[in-house]
Amino acid sequence: MLRADAQDNRDRVLDAARALFAERGLGVTMREIARRAGVGPATLYRRFPTRQALVDEAFADELRACERIVEDGCSDPDPWRGFRTVVEELTVLNSRNRGFVDAFMSANPHADAFVAHRAALLRRLVALGVRAQAVDGLRRDYELDDLLLVLMAGRGLASAPSQDRTAAARRFATLAVDALRASDTNAPLPRGASLSTYVLSSAGI
Amino acid sequence: MLRADAQDNRDRVLDAARALFAERGLGVTMREIARRAGVGPATLYRRFPTRQALVDEAFADELRACERIVEDGCSDPDPWRGFRTVVEELTVLNSRNRGFVDAFMSANPHADAFVAHRAALLRRLVALGVRAQAVDGLRRDYELDDLLLVLMAGRGLASAPSQDRTAAARRFATLAVDALRASDTNAPLPRGASLSTYVLSSAGI
DNA sequence: ACGTTAGTGGACGCACCCGTCCACTTGGTC
DNA sequence: GACCAAGTGGACGGGTGCGTCCACTAACGT
Predict the structure, then answer these.
(1) Cα-flanking dihedrals φ and ψ of residue A72, to 5°?
(2) Is any Cβ of chain B less than 8 angstroms from the Cβ of A200?
(3) Roughly what angle, to the nearest 10 degrees, separates helices B144-157 and B165-180?
(4) A17 vs A203 pLDDT, higher one
(5) Do B67 and B43 share a structural domain?
(6) Cα(B150)–Cα(A92) distance, integer angstroms
(7) Which of A19, A76, B3, B155 is deepest in the core (most CB within 10 A)?
(8) Chain B partners of A191 at a C-beta cutoff of 8 Å?
(9) pLDDT tens profile A38-60
(10) Of the candidates A81, A92, A88, A93, which has an alpha carbon nearest to the alpha carbon of residue A173?
(11) Closest residue to C10 by CA to C1' distance?
C-alpha cells in the first residue's frame, strides 16, 4: 500500500505523462513529465524505473479502449459493418493520441506489455477481415498490412490543429473504408506489402 | 572556385547527408553526418552554416524529381490518369526517402527553399484535382487535404524493411487511388479536413 | 506527541550535441 | 622548391537529458 502523498504524486505523474504523450508523442523527456507533474525526477524514477514502465501504465486505458473497439467490431453480426466501425473508431482514437500508435506499433518484443495484446488484437482483426471478405464487403485482395497502413496514416492526423482532429479522422476513415470496399471498379492491388511481417515477426502470428 | 580537396569534402558531406536523411529522417545530428563523411565538424559548418542549408542542398534533386512528377501528371491529356500517376509516383518517392516528406511538409516560412516550391506544387495539384473531377475520375468531394493525408501516410512506409519498400508503396498508392476514385458506391465524405490550411497557411494558397 | 521510515526534491557525474575558434596542413601558383 | 591563403581537424564552453545518490521532510502507527 502506497502512502497517501505518494499515491497522489503517482497519479499526477501518470496524468502528466498521458497528456504529454498524447499531444507530443513518445519523444517527451522524463524530466519534462516530472516538471509538468510538479515532482522531482527521483519521484518519477522511483515509481517508474524505466520509460517503458511509464508508457505501459499510461496507455493501459487506451489499450483497453482499443481492445473494446476490436471486440465490438468482431461481435457485430455483419462483419463488414464491424470492420468499418473498427477502422473508423481506431482512426479517431489514433488521431486523439499521438503517442498511442507509436507505442503500439513500435512495441519491443519482450520489452513491454503491448506485445501480447498486439498479437491477440491483430489475430482477431485478421479473422474479422476474412469474414468481411466472405460477405463481399471487404475487397478480396485486402490484407492486414493495408489496415496497418491506414492506422499509421492516421498518425499524421494527430499533428493537425486540435480543433477538428476528430472530424478529420472521420473523413480519413471514410476514405480508407472506400479504398477497402469490394467494388468492380477496384484496381487490382499489386503484391508487396510487408508491414505486418515486419511489425509482427515478434508476435508469433 | 573551390579548392579540389574542399570540393571533394563537400561532395562527401552531401552524400553522407543524403544517405542519413533518407534512412533515418531529418533527426540525424550534424556531427553524425560529419563522421559518416569522414570530416570534422568545422568542415561541415564551413560549407553549410545551418542545418537548413544542408537540407536544402541535399534534397534539391528530390525536389526536382518531385516537381517533374507533378509536371508530367499535369500535362497528361487525361487528368485523372495524370492524377493517379502523381499519387503513385510521389508515394514511391516518399517511401524511398524518409526525410523528404518531413522536409517538405514541415518547411518553415521564410526559413528555407521549400516554401515557394511547395506552394507552387500544391497549386498545380489543386488545379489537376479540379480537372480530374471534371472528367468524373476523381470523386467530387475530394479535397487537397485528402492527397496530403495519403502522402503523410506514405511516410510510414519508409520505416518498413527496405527490400520491398517500393512494392509496398505501389500497393498503398493503388489503395489510395481506389479511395479517391469517383464511384457510386462511395460513402459521402464527412466534412472536416484541415491539414491543408494548416500546412499551407504560410504558403499563400 | 513522537519516533520511524517511506518518500521527496535537488544536486551530481556522465554523455551527447551544439556552433565557434585556432593552430596546423596542404593545394595551387610563381 | 617556396610561399600563402584557403581549408582542415580537434578542442572548447555552453546547454540539455540521462539515471543515481543523499540529506531532509512529513505521513502514518503507536
Answers:
(1) -60, -45
(2) no
(3) 160
(4) A17
(5) no
(6) 16
(7) B155
(8) 167, 171
(9) 999 999 999 999 998 999 999 99
(10) A88
(11) A40
